[in-house]
Amino acid sequence: MFGDMMNMMGKLKEAQKKVEETKERLNTVMIDESSNDGKLKVTLTANRTIKSISIDEELLQDKDMLEDYLILTLNRAIEKATNVNETEIAAVAKEGMPNIPGMDMFK
């Protein structure tokens, strides 16, 4: 039994390392999102860090419109990045989970 426990602990540490490596890799996965008319473009990492924002000159003339565009476009980009992030992390975590009775919620 002690050997099984040590084996499980080793697998958990390995899974944790893979999750950390995946998080690092997700810093290089870029998510691009644009407003419907292309006047605002944002790029985020899959870890939800904003990398760039491109704003059409027309939007700079209307503060309220720019704010609306930013909210809508950033929220869509964050949603996409979150989906990529959660899918990647869940896949790595599931792959590395040892077979522990009663812990099959990740399977």
UniProtKB/TrEMBL annotation:
Q: Which domain of life is it from?
A: Bacteria
Coarse class of the protein's main subcellular location? cytoplasm
Q: Where in the cell is it found?
A: Cytoplasm, Nucleoid
Which InterPro entries does the entry mention? YbaB-like_sf, YbaB/EbfC
Which keywords belong to this entry?
A: Coiled coil, Cytoplasm, DNA-binding
Q: Which Gene3D superfamilies match?
A: Nucleoid-associated protein YbaB-like domain (3.30.1310.10)
Coiled-coil intervals, chain numbering: 5-32
DNA-binding keyword on record: yes
Entry keyword annotation includes Cytoplasm: yes
Function, please?
Binds to DNA and alters its conformation. May be involved in regulation of gene expression, nucleoid organization and DNA protection.
Q: Which family does it belong to?
A: Belongs to the YbaB/EbfC family.
How does the record describe its quaternary structure? Answer: Homodimer.
- Its protein name is Nucleoid-associated protein SNF14_05125
